Amino acid sequence: MNKLLYQVDDHPPLIMTVLLALQHMLAALGGIIAVPLVVGAVLKLPSDQMVALVNAALLGSGVVTFIQCKGVGPVGIRLPCVMGTSFAFVGAAISVGLEHGVPGILGSSLAASLVMIVGSFFMPQIRKLFPHSVTAVVVTMIGLSLVPVAIDWAAGGKAPGANYGAPMNLGIAVFVLVAVIALVQYGKGIFSAAAVVLGMFIGYLVCLGLGMVDFSSVHKAEIFALPQPLHYGLTFPLSGIVAMAIAYLVTMVETTGTFMALGGATQTKMRGKLLARGVLCDGLGSAFAAVLSSPPVSTFAQNVGVVSLTGVASRHVVALTGVLLALAGLFPVLGAVVVTIPQPVLGGAGLMMFAMIIAAGMQMLSKVEQNKRTGIIIAVSVGCGLAVTVRPELLSKLPAFVHEIFGSGITVGALMAVFLNLVLPERPVETGDEEDELVPQAMLTKELEVA
User: Fold this and answer.
1) How far is CA 392 from CA 109, 396, 407, in A?
2) Which pTM does this prediction carry?
3) Which of 69, 136, 112 is nearest to 300 (CA)?
4) Which of 12, 72, 124, 178 pairs as cysteine with 16 (C-beta 3.0–4.6 A)?
5) Transmembrane region positions (predicted)?
C-alpha cells in the first residue's frame, strides 16, 4: 500500500491545507450543484427558487461535511469524507416533486431519513456482509461507474451534443491530465499534494486565454444570501416517503462501499462501529438538509480518488472543504466563480482521480484468494455493474421502482457481490487441488482489516 503524505489526524501547513481543501471542493462542487439544478429544471421552478435550492444544497453539504470529518459525539466517521447531494435521490425526488412539489420532496426526505438513521445501528452486522472479496468489487465498481462522468466532462457535456467530443475539448482535457500526471510524478511537497487543483488552474488559464470561460453566472449571482430553512414548507405524502425510503436503502449500500474504499485509501481499519458513525451522520445530515430546504446528502465517492491520488488523508483538510462549501452557500458569487470552470478541465482531472479508484480496486482484487468461488463473485458482480453503467437504457422498459433500485452500477455490483457471497457454498474441493482450495470468510475479513 502506498505511503500517505499526511495521515488522518495530521495538520498540514495552512497554505497547503487551503489548497488541498479547495481541491476537494472543486472535485465535489459540480455534483452538489447538479442535483438541485436537474430537479428544479424538471419541476420548472422559477429562477429565485432554483437559486435558493442550490444555496441550501451547498450550505447543507458544507455543514454535514464538517461534522462527518470532525465528529460530534457518536456522529461522524472522522475521516476525510466530502458530503453532497446525491444523484441516487434524483429519480425519487422528481417523481415525488411532479405530484407533490418541492414540499413533498423535502418532507418525504425528512421522514425517510429514519431508514438510514435506524440502519446505522446495525452496521456491525452489515459490515460482515462485506469481506475482502466483496469490498474489492465495490471499490472497483465505484471507479468504473465514475469514469463515464469524467469522459462526458472531457468531451464537453452530454452526448449527443453539437460540441460533444470537439477536438478543442479533448485537447484541453488531455492537457490537464498530462499536467496532473507531471505534478504528481515530478512535483515535490505542495506541488505534488495539490496536483489536481494546480492542474485545473493551469487548464483554466489556458481556457481563459482561448475565450472558453463564461462569466455570465458570476454577473447574475448574489454576493450574500441568508439560509432559508423551511423555505418551501414540508408535506409528507406516503407514496413519497416510500420512494425516498427505497432511495435511502440504495444509498446506504453505496455509502458503505464508499466508506470501505475510503478506509483503504486512508489505511484505516473500517470496523462496524466506525461505519455506524458515518452512516448515522449521513442520515441525520439528510434530515438537517431537508429542514434547510436542500435535497438529501450522501458521501461523495469521487473525493476518495483525490485522497488516493495525492496521499493526503487529513480529515482536517476536508473539514475546511466543508467550511468552503458552506461559505459558497452563504456567498453565491463564490460558487458561481467555481462553476465557470469549463467541463474539459474537470474531465482531465476527473479521469485521473477516478482511474486511481479503479487502480485501488484492482490492487484489492489481486489480494483476494484466487479460486472458483471468488472468481464467480468478482466476474458476475463487475459484469452486472458495468451492464447498467454503460447501458443505462437496459432498464428503461421495466417499472420505475426497478430503475430506482438498480439504476446505479455501484449498487448493482455491491448487491450482486453480497448476494453471491451469501449463497455460494464455501465447501473445499478435493484434497490436493490447492488452486481451488477455499479460505474461510473470517480470514478474508481479517486480511481486509490488516490492509
Assistant:
1) 25, 8, 7
2) 0.76
3) 69
4) 12
5) 21-43, 49-67, 79-98, 104-122, 134-154, 166-184, 191-212, 232-250, 317-339, 345-362, 374-390, 405-424
- ω into 160 cis (within 30 of 0): yes
Contacts of 438 (CB under 8 A, 6+ apart): 369, 371, 373, 426, 427, 428, 429
C-alpha to C-alpha distance for 227 and 222, rounded to whole angstroms: 13
Cell numbers at residue 184, please?
A: 504528481
Q: Give the position of cell 429565485.
A: 48
- Residue 108 has which C-alpha cell? 418525504
Tell me the C-alpha distance between 317 and 12, whole Å.
8
DSSP, res 2: P
**What end-to-end distance do the CA atoms of the chain give, in Å?**
8
Q: Closest by alpha carbon to 146, among 78, 416, 138?
A: 138
Look up residue 92 and give its three cell numbers: 425519487
**Residues across the chain:** 451
Angle at 138 between CA 134 and CA 140, to 5 degrees: 115
SS3 state of residue 231: coil
- What is the DSSP code string of 404-417? HHHS-HHHHHHHHH
Q: How far is CA 191 from CA 25, 79, 317, in A?
A: 18, 23, 16
Give the span between the Cα atoms of 5 and 277, in whole angstroms: 26
DSSP 343-375: HHHHHHHHHHHHHHHHHHHHHHHHTS--SHHHH
